[in-house]
Amino acid sequence: MKRTDGRTPDQMRPIKAEVGVIPNADGSAMFSAGKTIAYAAVYGPREMYPRFMQNPKQGVLRCTYNMMPFSGHGDRVRPGGSRRSKEISAVTENALRPVLDLSDYPNAAVDVFIELTQTDGGTRCAGITAAAMALADAGLKMKDLVSAMSMGMLEGEMVVDINGTEDCVLGATDVPIALIPNMDKISLLQLDGEISRETLKKLLDTGKKKCLEIYKAQQNALKEKYKVD
Amino acid sequence: MAEKEHILKSLKAGVRYDGRKLLDYREVSVEPNVTNAEGSARVKIGDTEVLVGVKLAVEEPYPDTPEEGKLMVNTELRPIASPDFESGPPGEQAIDIARVVDRGLRESKALAPEKLCIKAGEKVWSVMIDVVPLNDAGNILDAASIGALAALKNTRFPVVKEDGNIDWEAELTDKKLELGKEPIEVTVLKIGEFYIVDPILKEEELADTSITIAVSKEGLVYAMQKRGDSPLSVDEIDKMVEIAVKKSGELRKIIG
User: Fold this and answer.
1) Parallel, antiparallel, or unpaired: how do β-strands B184-191 and B70-75 relate?
2) A56 interfacial to chain B (CB closer than 8 Å)
């Protein structure tokens, strides 16, 4: 099967990872897959407001996902949160939380802001991938990075790293996943479409392998910033 | 006010906090076409980084201007760019930036609004410019103005279907937005008796007053906005306009 952008079914889009892109932030990163570009910045650990949300036992991770108004394919995205962006913020938090140890920061918040400057599918995955690098760049205690990508089923065939056209126009089954590589566990899993149990298992196994390629890019980007000459 | 005394002393010696001279900009760079929006640009001034995107839509004209297109400028000061920015509706600073950039473009007729008419009284182009900083290290406004102009210069029209709606699946056409005047805004700040441009955050905070001045290629002024509660004499204002006209010419060369 030939895909709309000329890729083979198991071919990912070109990826790019960069760490330390936002000077004001305590940690930051950019990750792009094809035309999808995500920036993530970490601010904190810092005092948490409103105070009643503080946790005296450990720090709290808060993630905010947002698409810039001009980032969409099609009409301008109206600023201000949507149900979709709230949901993605929440699943992003859940995807990243398992690798973070915030026990040293009671009552503090670690805020992660994810902004999409350009979108072509797989935005939550690009956001999570960028955010994991930004958290590491912020020097937080982490068990591992998190690497995410959207798998799909198109015309009965498994495809990796689906793009916006495949997801929204061609109606691919969309399965965004995030992998915590050294635990070999999946921390983001969503699905829209139709799939059998057997195929899902195969798809997850393939997805894990592909996430490891993203993992390598994340590690290289971090090493690039922190290399010692 | 020890900090203010300190900055005044150093300005008297002709030096800024970051070693620049009073009327020097930090390094300015403009990168066009940075998103798949109809027009876009990334502007960096030192560590300040601003993205500007232009989106087009087909809308009904306003009843009082049935043959004119619409222009809207919006600024989103998202918390990704600064620990001082919070989520939520635009605050005073975001509104100031958006309105002042808007007025520069509108008053100079940068967009020639009558050229944005599709069918009088029924359909016109709406041009929506969004300014989103990625990092605030001072002087977002000048960066926004440069970015808006650069983004408009590479804005291309999308394909319009027979039913009058935009065909987002088609590639953008080669037809570009037609620009008239090309205003660039320069913000001149006054601290004590000294004038500076391109402030870092500390200088923005300590300034007594500032004026943003929109200047065309021809050196005409199309919009001004004075800030701060410190009044100015006519001679002082004249001096600030002189600085803005000169600096806008230098910035214009960078946009190309």
Assistant:
1) unpaired
2) no
Q: Report the pLDDT value the prediction gives residue A171, as an integer from 0 to 100.
A: 87
- Give the model's pLDDT for residue B85: 96
- Does the ipTM surpass 0.85? yes
Q: Give which of A142, A210, A144, A217 is closest to A176, Cα–Cα.
A: A210
What DSSP state is assigned to residue B205? H
Compute the mean pLDDT over every residue in chain A, rounded to the nearest whole number.
96
For residue A196, give the CATH number of its domain.
3.30.230.70
- Which residues of chain B neighbour A41 with C-beta distances below 8 Å? 80-81
Chain Cα centroid distance, residue B15: 27
**Which of helix, strand or coil describes residue A214?**
helix
**C-alpha distances out from residue B210 to A56, A69, B136, B203, Å:** 45, 29, 18, 11
- What is the number of structural domains in chain B? 1
Interface test with A, best of B49, B80, B154 (most A CBs within 10 A): B80
A 10 A CB-CB count for A184 gives 8
Cα–Cα nearest to A193, from A142, A229, A159: A159
Q: Which residues of B touch A (CB under 8 A)?
A: 34-37, 40, 47, 49, 51, 53-55, 57, 74, 76, 78-83, 87, 89, 128, 130, 132, 134-137, 166, 168-169
- The pair of structure tokens assigned to A204 is 């997850």
- In-domain check, residue A61: yes
Rounded to whole angstroms, the Cα distance separating A70 from B39 reads 9
Query: Is a pLDDT exceeding 90 seen at residue A227?
Result: no
Q: Read off the pTM.
A: 0.94
Tally of domains in chain A: 1
Q: What pLDDT digit, counting tens, does each position of A174-195 carry?
A: 999 999 999 999 999 999 999 9
Q: Does A111 touch chain B (CB under 8 A)?
A: yes
Q: Answer yes or no: is A9 within a domain.
A: no
The CATH code of the domain that includes B150 is 3.30.230.70
Q: What is the residue range of A110's domain?
A: 15-223
Residue A10 domain flag: no
Query: Is position A6 within any domain?
Result: no
Domain that holds residue B193: 2-255
* Residue burial B148-170, b: 16+ Cβ < 10 Å; e: rest: bbbbbbbbbbbebeeeeebeeee
- The minimum CA-CA distance between A219 and chain B, rounded to whole Å, is 23
